[in-house]
């Protein structure tokens, strides 16, 4: 009798323990999503019902659309083809009602880029305010001048030196010559 | 190509360090974004060549209306310190022998053969199909070769961070810039520049702007009837800006 009871209780206790663990983990998991240390980006839009393309498409490809637009706008002087993809158009809809900008903390562009850890350099030159709005204050988020890494810079290096830089050997003045020529 | 991505951060850190040591200009490796957004108007076409004619006999000595108009249109500060961007400068020309003196606005001359485009290492400095010479700030690394190449000293470098840019005229630190013939207006279908409007408003009417390839445009008719000159014509740059009375 004793032996039988013992043989039956052990697996049951183990099962109960595992179930408790699973429930605890599930609870902790759901809790983590709601009270994460990393704030979720603010993707609410102040104006308009829908974007120029589907949300999923824009999330993945907005930079490609902007890049295409900049070529037609700057070099060809043609905005009719792609005007809806212009950065001015982005800002006009996505500027927050709070500070009339897209680069303040919690604003549309800035919050998502902060979440993804991708620096926005657009607004060092482009206005972060809707077009026609009067000049206002300095953007709350500093867009420092450094860290403008570019693939093209690397490619110039490679074109000049015929190889990629040996990063462990350190840099000298000749390396810089390869970049700025 | 994926090698590039794995290298980028360390690479740029190293290069920037060396650049600083070599006391190179801080803007030299920067990569900037820029250029205008517009509504309507035809794309740049080689059937058009935009040009300007300045009648220096009507240009008022001491008047800087064109400069202020330009500053307002393009969001420039109006500061005239040696390091401040200036797209137009008023120049006073005088002959010390005779004492005769006159003034003229000097800006990008929008050459047909622009030296700034020849020297640009990245292709940022370019000439549009309609003859307007521009800087693509997305491509400008701020090396300032174009500033050295320009015989008219027409280009400026932005040393300080810029805030409160106009939506139509993006501009920012680390890029070279110059007169754009108010390209944002042209791409929007207008055919006047801010300096011309300001000059007319002041009552001088010294600036004509229009299509040099259209024989019926006001500027072409005026060029055909009066003597005008390029500045430094011996360089054979065939500038888009010409002057009367120099």
UniProtKB/TrEMBL annotation, chain A:
<dbReference type="InterPro" id="IPR036280">
    <property type="entry name" value="Multihaem_cyt_sf"/>
</dbReference>
<feature type="signal peptide">
    <location>
        <begin position="1"/>
        <end position="28"/>
    </location>
</feature>
<keyword id="KW-0732">Signal</keyword>
<protein>
    <submittedName>
        <fullName>Sulfite reduction-associated complex DsrMKJOP multiheme protein DsrJ</fullName>
    </submittedName>
</protein>
Automatic annotation (TrEMBL), chain B:
<keyword id="KW-0004">4Fe-4S</keyword>
<dbReference type="InterPro" id="IPR054822">
    <property type="entry name" value="DsrO-like"/>
</dbReference>
<dbReference type="InterPro" id="IPR050954">
    <property type="entry name" value="ET_IronSulfur_Cluster-Binding"/>
</dbReference>
<dbReference type="InterPro" id="IPR017896">
    <property type="entry name" value="4Fe4S_Fe-S-bd"/>
</dbReference>
<keyword id="KW-0479">Metal-binding</keyword>
<dbReference type="InterPro" id="IPR006311">
    <property type="entry name" value="TAT_signal"/>
</dbReference>
<feature type="domain" description="4Fe-4S ferredoxin-type">
    <location>
        <begin position="131"/>
        <end position="160"/>
    </location>
</feature>
<protein>
    <submittedName>
        <fullName>Sulfite reduction-associated complex DsrMKJOP iron-sulfur protein DsrO</fullName>
    </submittedName>
</protein>
<dbReference type="GO" id="GO:0046872">
    <property type="term" value="F:metal ion binding"/>
</dbReference>
<keyword id="KW-0408">Iron</keyword>
<feature type="domain" description="4Fe-4S ferredoxin-type">
    <location>
        <begin position="50"/>
        <end position="81"/>
    </location>
</feature>
<dbReference type="Pfam" id="PF13247">
    <property type="entry name" value="Fer4_11"/>
</dbReference>
<dbReference type="GO" id="GO:0051539">
    <property type="term" value="F:4 iron, 4 sulfur cluster binding"/>
</dbReference>
<keyword id="KW-0411">Iron-sulfur</keyword>
<dbReference type="InterPro" id="IPR017900">
    <property type="entry name" value="4Fe4S_Fe_S_CS"/>
</dbReference>
